[in-house]
Amino acid sequence: MSVAYRPVGWTRSKIVYDAALLAGVALYLVAFMRLAPGARPAGTLLDAQSLAIKAFGSCAFLLLTMVLMIGPLARLDQRFLPLLYNRRHFGVITCAVAASHAMAVIDWYFAYSPLSPWVALLATDTASGELRGLPFIPFGVLAFLILLVLAATSHDFWLAFLGPPVWKAIHMSLYGAYGLVVLHIAFGVLQDARNAGLPLLVFGGAGALIALHLAAAWRERRRDQPMAVKAEGWVAAGLIRDVPSGRGLVVPLADGSSVAIFRENDSLAAISNLCAHQNGPLGEGRLRDGCVICPWHGYEYRLRDGCAPAPFTERVATYQLRLEGEAILLDPRPNPLGTAVEPLSIPGDRR
Predict the structure, then answer these.
(1) For residue 124, what pLDDT band results from cuts at 50, 70 and 90?
(2) N or C: lower Cβ tally within 10 Å for the chain?
(3) C-alpha dist (Å) from residue 271 to 61, 158, 165, 292, 306
(4) Could you tell me the pLDDT band of residue 188, with boundaries at 50, 70 and 90?
């Protein structure tokens, strides 16, 4: 292997993120264990082990739904961007909660089986020709195996070793895992639901997730319309007032790529909209000390030359800008990596 392993760099923000997430999981589990017995219909019993199985299972479903909501939420409202920075930690914790659910099931139902618990887990779930008898455990097992693979490959080592396209394709299987989990619940515990809480949780969560993705896709579709091309091949990128101070204006190009224009004080500069780390949207990032910070994983690039500050070596392309009155014109041809471009000063009467 030519890729070196680097331990996770723990920062204060990562520690706070993980601590808040773990505290939320603990609060949910404690609340569920205390409140769920009271929500059961009168005359029905729920033993402690079954209660734990339901608590871990519902918690894993909620966490998985939230993981998939973070992306579209961050695209619709930048206030959700902090949730995006360490989303992989969210996924690993989700996998750990799902593992707790699986181990609780095996311990309660198959601990005394004459067969291996893993064999018994699948062998006892047979179809009877009716919807209620449709095996639901294989859906859950397959979803859990996908979560395990994603958690095991969440480290940057695997991202560098596999390459961003392959790594991203593997991690998109999270959507498939979510679908399997919905089937696991629908053909399993939902068949014996005694109140509206579980159906509301499953179908309400899945419905909200689909609605968020559709809303984000609609917004991206409108924003991804290529800009008009002016004389000499330059692109009309927008007006000076369209670029918020400290934030980016994303300019889609005819070839499918996009450029992020930033305004720092009274000057403008443009770099590629795709982070060199994992193709994160730099135009949705923020400026700090002359560097654009990727909203996905915090990678930084200097605006003037597109290079990451030392000791990092990532680079993105820079672009030429010019002004015609209030209009910003962009040369869509990227400069060679590492090319420094003097920021375009905004005249005093146009600021």
Answers:
(1) low
(2) N
(3) 39, 27, 21, 9, 6
(4) confident
